[in-house]
Amino acid sequence: MRALDTTREVDARQREIVRRLGGPSRLLLALDMSVAARAFTLARLRRRHPDYSERDLKKALLRLAFAADDLPPPLR
After folding, report:
1. Would you give per-residue pLDDT tens digits along the chain (76 residues)?
2. What residue ranges do the domains of the chain occupy?
3. CA angle, corner 1, sides to 9 and 30, nearest 5?
4. Torsions phi, psi for 22 (to 5 deg)
5. Is 61 helix (H, G, I), strand (E, B) or coil?
6. Residue closest to 60 by CA, chosen among 37, 35, 41
7. Which of 5, 45, 58, 63 matches a 20 to 30 Å C-alpha distance to 35?
């Protein structure tokens, strides 16, 4: 899926670069993106809920990442 702010040419180039990476490098890239997304989401939650404790923030992050029915009752 192409990002809305990315031209087709740049998207094709990015895909080619990722395709050339070996498995471990692609895995590290995915991990880095996941860590960045988590950090951005936590920063947004902190701005919206300055009164939340770290525990509350982690619970909110889990609720955003997973369907509530998939979480154990204390985390819903």
Report:
1. 777 888 999 999 999 999 999 999 999 999 999 999 999 999 999 999 999 999 999 999 998 988 878 888 887 7
2. 8-75
3. 100
4. -75, 170
5. helix
6. 41
7. 5
CA distance 29 to 34: 9
Kindly write down the DSSP assignment for every residue of 37-56, as one continuous string: HHHHHHHHHHHH-TT--HHH
Contact 52, 45 (CB under 8 A): yes
Give the global pTM.
0.72
Tokens of residue 49, six digits: 């809920």
Rounded distance between C-alpha atoms, residue 71 and residue 15, angstroms: 34
